[in-house]
Amino acid sequence: MKYLFQKNTLLIIVGNFLLAFSVCAFILPFNITVGGSTGISIIFNNLFQLNLSTIILIINIICLIFGYIYVGKQLVIGSLLSSFLYPLFLSMCQRIPGITLLSQDIMLSAIIGGVISGFGVGLTIKAGATIDGLEILSVIINKKTNISISKSMYAIDIMIMLGQLPFYKFDNVFYGIISAYLLTFIINKVLSYGITKAQVFIFTKQYELLKEELIKNDYGVTLFYASSGLKNVEFQVLNTTVFSKELSKIKSIIQRVDNMAFVTIHPVSEVRGRGFTLDK
Prior knowledge:
- This protein has about 280 residues and is of the alpha+beta class.
- It has 10 helices and 4 strands; from the N terminus they run ααααααααβαββαβ.
- The two termini are about 20 Å apart.
- The model has no long low-confidence stretch (mean pLDDT about 85).
C-alpha cells in the first residue's frame, strides 16, 4: 500500500511537470488555444473582464466537489496535489533560459506540445488524479457511461476552443485542435497501456498438456472441437483471453509445450466476467 502511494505520487509529480514544461515551451510562445478550465477562463475574461485565476479556481472547486461525490476522495486528494504542483512547475519552467526558443515552427510546437502534454495528463490520471478541473468531468462521464476519458476530453476541449474563435485567429484555434487531438490520443495510449486484452487461439496436438500448463499458470481455457482441412483429423483448439502484457508469458508456455503449434492472436475491445470485471 505504501509502495503504491509512493508510485502514484511520483506519477502525479512527473505528469504535472511534463504538462507545465510543454505549455511553457510549445503552447504559450505561439498563443495556441487551449481547452479545459483555462480555455473557459479565457472566454469569460474576454466577455466580462473577469480574473483568469479566479475563474479557474471556481471551476476547479466545483469539479472537485463533483469528483468527490461521484468518483471518491482518492481522486480529490491527488487533484489537490496537482493544484499546488502545476502552478509551481509552471512558474519554474517559465524561468528556464531559452525555453520559448526550443521551436520556431507553430505546427511542430502544436505536435510536440500535444504529445508531451498527453503523457503528463495521462500519467496523472493513471495515478488516480487530475491536473485540470474539467478532467474530473471526463472521469465522471467515463464512470457513468463507459465513454473513454480521452474521447470526452477531446469533445469538451473542441467546444471550448471553438468558443475562443471570436478572440483568437483561426490559425491559433486550428493548431490548438491539432494539439488537443494528439493530447487525447496519447492519454488514451497511456491509460490503456498494460490493460488492453487479447484473445489467443492455439491449434496443437498437445492440447491436453498445454491446457494443464495454462490452468497451472492461472489462465482460463476454453476448448473447441475442430478438424484439419487436409487430413480431416479431429482435435481440440484452446482459447484463452489475457491482458496484452501477459502475451510474452503465454507464448513462452506454448513454445515450451509445442514449438510447432499454430497460434492466432486477436485484439479484444472489451471483456466481462471472471478474471476481468469479476474476481477469479
